[in-house]
Amino acid sequence: MKTFYITTPIYYPSANLHIGHAYCTTIADAIARYKRLDGFDVFFLTGSDEHGQKIQRSAQAQGKSPLEYVDPIVESFKDLWTKFHISNDDFIRTSEPRHEKVVQEIFRRIQANGDIYKGEYTGLYCTPCESYWTELQLDENGCCPDCHRPVEKVSEEAYFFRLSKYADKLLQHIEEHPEFIVPTSRRNEMINFIRRGLEDLCISRTSFDWGIPVPDDPRHVIYVWFDAVINYITPLIHNEDMKRFWPADIHLVGKEIVRFHTIIWPAMLMAAGLPLPKQIYGHGWLVTDTGKMSKSVGNVVDPVLLVEEFGADAIRYFLLREITLGLDGNFSRDALIARINADLANDLGNLLHRTLNMIGKFQQGTLLPATDGTELDQSFRAQALDTVREYRRLMDDVQLSDAVKVVWKFIGRANKYIDETMPWKLAKDPAQRQQLANVLYNLAESLRIVSVLIEPFMPDTAQKIRAQLNVTSKPKLDDAQTFGLLEANHVVGKPEQLFPRILTDK
Ligand SMILES: [Zn+2]
Residue 15's pLDDT band (boundaries 50, 70, 90)? Predict the structure, then answer.
């Protein structure tokens, strides 16, 4: 069986969830669901990244142990994924014993290969980002180049990973595998970064203890990034799944952490003698009309409240349709409402409602045997199949936004087909019975096909449409590639509203 392995980053358990977390996970979920539709055996992993000084400090400030501090936050992640219909197959917490064991094994393996050594570290550390920086990398105020907060000077005995040794091998791999880092802009950034030279990476700390101990030297804990990226193999390495799913097909990550995933992680894998992931996909950020979401600006969009107000499928649709994968995208409440009203309530909702309504009214809810029909009918059916072909091409190429658009173009076509064929007129003319049966059959079939195509984007809605069509089989991509699978004499259900229109002041 063909297999597919996709991961999201494991998220840092900060108390503030925002829609950006949901964005990344929704993309991964849509890809995972598409691959399942296409018959792949899919493994989809997400999780939480729980170690490090910042967590330890936050926990201390609340008089809690680190685990007491992160447990409820991790639960809120899991709840959110349930609310968003995220279909992950596993959830890794880096605080779990199964992960600790694997991290120590990988550490030992790299150490045995001579690529981990003990030295003295003096450097600049940004605690919020858990990143070490050199003087040259700091911003114009001498602060962290990522978050612009002050860095701390630290000096301690530490373990180092011989990252410098892998610069040439990494460059060669990136050049020989153009698909390894996507999009190209990120790839070019990484090539330039490596060409400036790589320094060995400090991978242990002694100034706090909330982390995974270095094997045989537990005074040291392993650097949180070294620990975190290993999660991608934690659930696989001790069973058959390693053979089936590794190397990962896609590590989906935010653009700000592409460096860790395309330089440090692959070098670690090379040092451990393991194959590299096939692709690291760096997606853009969600911004709002008032800029990048941040607590201080007060423009953070809470995904829990959003789901409660609009439902997960509408938000999933918006995120997948509005934002071209790889680029930054704008999130606004007005734009979300506009999409819900126009695309979901109007285009999709009306198509379903009108179709089922007419089948109920004109044929007592039963589809009748169809014939080839007119030229218009034939070209409509051909368009349905063209849509499926184009959708597949785009989805296989991870162009999710364009794939959504292609489906909605066809939904628009189907609505127009109703206006052109005017079934209510055909119904009045006994000589047009066959033609009426053809049109209603074609509409029901196109809705069945649409219900397969939108499953990756809006799983709940896809299921509702199938229930109303009275289709009980599990959606499969193969079933979308044939027009005419609904049987003559199939009885459809009653129409129910999919998306209520949202009234606004405007
Ligand atoms: Zn920082």
Answer: low
Residue 325 domain-assigned? no
Residue 152: other Cβ atoms inside 10 A: 11
Ligand 1 centroid, distance to 125 Cα (angstroms): 8
Q: How far apart are the first and last CA of the chain?
A: 53
Compute the distance from residue 300 Cα to the ligand 1 centre, in Å. Answer: 19
The position carrying tokens 């190397």 is 247
- Does one domain contain both 261 and 380? no
Q: How far is CA 422 from CA 23, 75, 354, 416, 469, in A?
A: 41, 52, 11, 10, 21
Give the DSSP letter of residue 257.
G
140 and 18, same domain (yes or no): yes
Query: How far is ligand 1, taken at its centre, from the CA of residue 129, in Å?
Result: 4
Residues 159 and 34 in one domain: yes
Query: What is the CATH classification number for the domain harbouring 48?
Result: 3.40.50.620
Q: Identify whether 489 is part of a domain.
A: no
* Residues 276, 365 within the same domain: no
Last residue in a domain, options 262, 290, 310: 310
pLDDT at 301 over 90: no
Tens-digit pLDDT profile for residues 159-184: 999 999 999 999 999 999 999 999 99
The answer to whether position 486 is within a domain reads no
- Tell how far CA 254 is from the center of its chain: 10
Task: List pLDDT tens digits, range 402-460.
Answer: 999 999 999 999 999 999 999 999 999 999 999 999 999 999 999 999 999 999 999 99
Please tell me the distance between residue 143's alpha carbon and the centre of ligand 1 in angstroms. Answer: 8
CA 60 to centroid of ligand 1, rounded, Å: 21
User: Is the residue at 504 inside a domain?
Assistant: no
147 vs 288, residue with greater confidence: 147
Picking from 282, 318, 313, the residue whose alpha carbon sits closest to that of residue 401 is 318
476 C-alpha to ligand 1 centroid (Å): 45
For ligand 1, a single-atom ion, the residues with CB < 5 A are 126, 128-129, 144, 146-147
Radius of gyration of the chain (CA): 26
List pLDDT tens digits, range 319-346: 999 998 888 988 989 999 999 999 999 9
Q: Rounded to the nearest whole angstrom, what is the distance from the C-alpha of residue 141 to the centroid of ligand 1?
A: 13
Question: How far away, in angstroms, is 229 Cα from ligand 1 center?
Answer: 19
Residue 493 Cα to ligand 1 middle (Å): 56
Please state the domain count of the chain: 2
Q: Range of 114's domain? A: 3-310
Mean pLDDT in residue range 50-72: 94
Predicted confidence at residue 122, as pLDDT, reads 85
362 lies in the same domain as 446: yes
